[in-house]
Amino acid sequence: MITTPKTRYLIVSAFLLQIVFSCSALAHLEKAKFFPSDANAGDNFGVSVAIDGNTAVAGAYQNDSNGSDCGAAYVYELSGSQWIEKQKLVPSDGSAGDKFGRSVALEGNTIVVGSYYDDNKGSAYVFSRLGGVWTQQQKLVAPDAAADDKSGCSVAIDNNTIVIGAYGDNSYAGSASVFVLAGSNWVFQQKITASDALLGDHFGYSVAIDNNIIIIGAPNDDYSDLADIGSAYLYQRQDTTWLEQNILRASDGGLSHHFGFSVALDENWAVIGAYEGDTNVVSSAGAAYVFSRTGANWVERQKLFDANDPCGGDDFGFAVAIKNDTILVGCPYDFVNSNMTGSVFEFVCTDTNWIQSDRLAAGDANTNDRFGSSLALSGRHIIIGAPNNFNNDKSTGAAYLFDNFLGDLDADSDVDFLDFAVLANSWRQNNPLVDIAPLPTGDGTVNLADFALFVQDWLQGH
Length: 462
Hints:
Blueprint: H1 5-19, E1 29-34, E2 45-52, E3 55-60, E4 72-79, E5 82-89, E6 100-107, E7 110-115, E8 123-130, E9 133-140, E10 151-158, E11 161-166, H2 169-172, E12 175-182, E13 185-192, E14 206-210, E15 213-218, E16 231-238, E17 241-248, E18 259-266, E19 269-274, E20 287-294, E21 297-304, E22 319-323, E23 326-331, E24 335-336, E25 339-340, E26 343-350, E27 353-360, E28 374-378, E29 381-386, E30 390-391, E31 394-395, E32 398-403, H3 417-428, H4 448-459
Antiparallel strand pairs: 1-32, 2-3, 3-4, 4-5, 6-7, 7-8, 8-9, 10-11, 11-12, 12-13, 14-15, 15-16, 16-17, 18-19, 19-20, 20-21, 22-23, 23-26, 24-25, 26-27, 28-29, 29-32, 30-31
């Protein structure tokens, strides 16, 4: 059938009305794979990742640029429709063995990088962006830093507040240090320790912050006469003081579940990983627990796990993230297509229940990539680390960027009538520039399938 431009527009209008009430969930699209331009075997690039808007950062804590295992972090930025390597970050006083890049955090024009073997005590470095260039602003060290503190094993930033975990402090009882921005300098505010601290708890192994709440994991905490069950601690800021508010524990916690190995926080929700936890039928496959805040209390709402094919040792819960109505859970030893490559599970909130909506895997996955060892999300972007991934025949590590919608055709971070106009005009001109269907690479032409995928995305409220 020959169609004129006018006829095509009429077809589109009718087609939109037909599918508007029958759209299913949109799959994620792998948009980019990151690995450093100077990557070397054993760098462990992707051991840590963070993303905010159109900027991402990934740590490579065994990079050898300034000596063996000194470490580095790499910044990527979205330019047009392409992600580009923008800059490599290294500490000004870096030396062999520092393991700079073990943890990273990003907010706006500020990046925090943990260097947890620095001077055998650990530290964190703050970089700021000015004129498109990232420059080291300050090195943060706890006032009472001591040998084997492992300060910088975890870092988090929100609203001009930085939290730095030090799980080795005080014979591995652990602690966390809080720094706040005063003018142009970061100033130490408080050292946080658990009210029931014991040696070996590893308090501070994981940290997260959102507004005036900090959550800190202690994955080796013992209680109920069982070792390494794990706990997570919540702190509320009152004026300039952080006060312990709640201690969170899994309702079905068990021996060596390591609840608190990973933590995430967003408004009134907290997610806590227990990578050796049990599912309903399989031991040690891993789990993640969702808590919500009601007043001053935090209540366990749901246990998340791989309900389809869990296996012992999958390490579901190794990494967790939450933003708005989306939770991500890393499962770095999960089997995909019979290979132990790793995966990431996505859950979305419907009313008060979290249901699995997707399972992400790398397009070029290989055995033991450990895809899902680290992860983060911001807006439509998801970044996932695979620190054992091979590139150029070397185990350098990699990070993968996924977009959870495709309809932002004019790259303004919104899906609206302007994007519809771009797609319609492309169809009218027989221009495959915005060919998006079928996933993942399109079919070389713009047709009704592209409109269907576009409308699915639009109706999800992006």
